[in-house]
Amino acid sequence: MSKVLAVDLGGTKIYSALVNRSGEITSGDIRPTNAQDGYQGVVKRILASIARVNTLDEPAVGVGVAVPAYIDPQEGRILFAPNLKWQAVDLKKDLEDALGLPVWLDNDANLAALGEHRYGAGKGYHNLVYITVSTGVGGGLILDGKLYRGAFGGAGEFGHMIAAPEGPGCSCGNIGCLEGVASGCAIKREAQNLVKSGRGHHMLSLAGTIEKIDARVVGQAAAEGDLDAQEILARAGRYLGIAIASVANLLNPEVFIIGGGVACGVGKLILDPAFNEAYRRTYPPYRDSLKIVPAVLRAQTGVLGAAAYAWDQLDQIKR
Ligand SMILES: [Zn+2]
Description:
Blueprint: E1 4-9, E2 13-19, E3 25-32, H1 38-53, E4 63-67, E5 70-71, E6 78-81, E7 86-89, H2 91-99, E8 103-107, H3 108-119, E9 128-133, E10 137-143, E11 146-148, H4 179-182, H5 184-196, H6 201-207, H7 215-223, H8 227-251, E12 255-259, H9 261-266, H10 268-281, E13 292-294, H11 301-318
Parallel strand pairs: 1-4, 4-8, 9-12, 12-13
Antiparallel strand pairs: 1-2, 2-3, 5-6, 6-7, 9-10, 10-11
Helix pairs in contact: 3-11, 5-8, 6-7, 7-8, 8-10
Bound molecules: zinc ion (ZN).
């Protein structure tokens, strides 16, 4: 049975895997990205990681790579990868030259949407919106069964929808983006501000110092019944719900799938307020069809999305 190589290239780690068509990972390798070594250094580490998983008795037929980057969808060139500090690099060509195999790249959030659609919580749906809530907020769209990239490759930037027009500044330079009020960074900022104002004692005692308070600490405090922490997560959830309602009214998808470390870590403490807010704001005739579910692939989201993409591209070549 043939296999593809799938690589989830993150800002902190590289996860490579050999994956069959059913989405089973038969071998895997995880190692640090060491982004500070620069582009050539990271390419070497990707190749070493791939060499570890690509067994000679079952050589792979193609390679899919999920990259935290803006990518030219026609050429597959990386235009800009802020976490890796890369600009205008041709990772597709460099990997193809080194491996002698076809390589396909896409944005990690797009491929996470594809992975959940093919192998995870989105199986069987034709129209879904994938949202990741981790340090930042991102997303990907599957419309009529296909990944939707928009005219210039920028579709699915869920985190930069305006959810709080008067809200805080966003890393993108705008004001009021969802990422500024519902991301792991936003939760951390809210919690630290609360502690600075003299409240949030439980969060402070869990973390030790203000600087160590992050979304994980807020989640732990909330799970232990801390009302301040619960309110911070609920507020982030309500903003998420506002953005979900806007997308529900625009696209009328069958399901919203919520993944990412923060959302998966705190679960219902964010998802329930998000659902309630989204339900209230969704156009009434479609309210009762609103469905928000947690992602299921977790740490495998990136590699399985990259694998699904490689299989799709191989199928297109055969046609
Ligand atoms: Zn923004």
